[in-house]
Amino acid sequence: MTDQHSINSATTEWLTVSTADGPMRVYIASPAQPASRAVVVLQEAFGVNEHIQDIARRYAARGFLALAPDLFHRNGVGMLAYEQHAEAMPLIGAIGPDAIVTDVRAVVAHLTEQEGIPASRTAVNGFCFGGRAAFTAATGIGGLGATVVFYGPGIAAGPHAVVDRVKDIDAPMMLHVGSADPTIPAEQVRAIDEALTGARVEFESHVYEGAGHAFACDARPHMYVEDSASTAWQRTYAFLDWHLPATA
Predict the structure, then answer these.
(1) How confident is the model at residue 8 (pLDDT cuts 50, 70, 90)?
(2) In sequence order, what are the beta bridge partners of 38?
(3) Which residues of 207-232 are buried (b: 16+ CB within 10 A; e: fewer)?
(4) Total-model pTM
(5) pLDDT tens digit string along 81-134?
(6) I want to staple 243 with a disulfide (CB 3.0 to 4.6 A). Which of 41, 90, 146, 236 is the partner?
(7) b/e string for 90-106 if b means 16 or more Cβ within 10 A?
(8) Which residues are annotated as catalytic?
């Protein structure tokens, strides 16, 4: 284990977790006190960058053990700058549902076997590409405690769409999307809501009027919408505290 230091009472480090497709680096933020619940934080299209690491630390400050796996581990890219959107698109396009489930399952197994935190006490929270990844993980990994999707494109349409797999979701889900997000048009939001309703999944779907894609990413000021982001995070924390209370 390397790169260990303390930030806002959270101890952070990188470690390597074995997956069926090879070793995967994982950023971990641990709370000051031993955790009985965990969140798997899934990256945007730009890797486990400072923004994703910051989200992990926010969760640690709330008592969660937070793990952010490097979903780019198969190609070795690591991180991209936000202006490298064109370079990011083929990278995330190459990561299909099976790869996502493989990676998240490895993190959940690590939590169960090494940290003593079962899947039922683990949530998955993803952003942008990671939002699609979180939804996908929920369709392929049973027994999770909760799933939170922030503006995940490609769930209802596209080469890796998984809306047809909703019958396999057995964990409660919360979804956040901006009404002005061009990557997730209203008809796709409706399709996801209808599929989840039809499959009797317990879920909440929140649309933020006037907000665009990545509205909760304060690392991108031109996309960040403070009011919507604040509301989304308040709802997320309340949702996770309800389904994964601090004391089991």
Answers:
(1) low
(2) 65, 122
(3) bbeebbbbbbbebeeebbbeebbebb
(4) 0.95
(5) 999 999 999 999 999 999 999 999 999 999 999 999 999 999 999 999 999 999
(6) 146
(7) ebbeebebebbbbbbbb
(8) 128, 181, 213
Amino acid at 121: R
Are 56 and 28 a contacting pair, CB within 8 Å? yes
Number of Cα atoms under 13 Å in the Cβ half of residue 117: 25
The domains of the chain are located at 2-243
The burial of 16, by beta-carbon neighbours within 10 Å (0-12 exposed, 13-18 middle, 19 or more buried), is given as middle
Label residue 78 by pLDDT band (50, 70, 90).
confident
CA–CA dist 201, 171 (Å, integer): 7
Strand order across the 22-30 sheet: 2-7, 10-19, 22-30, 65-69, 38-42, 122-127, 146-150, 173-178, 203-208
Domain 2-243 CATH superfamily: Alpha/Beta hydrolase fold, catalytic domain (3.40.50.1820)
Exposed/middle/buried for residue 245 (C-beta within 10 Å: 0-12, 13-18, 19+):
exposed
Q: Would you say 94 and 118 are in contact if contact means Cβ atoms under 8 Å apart?
A: no
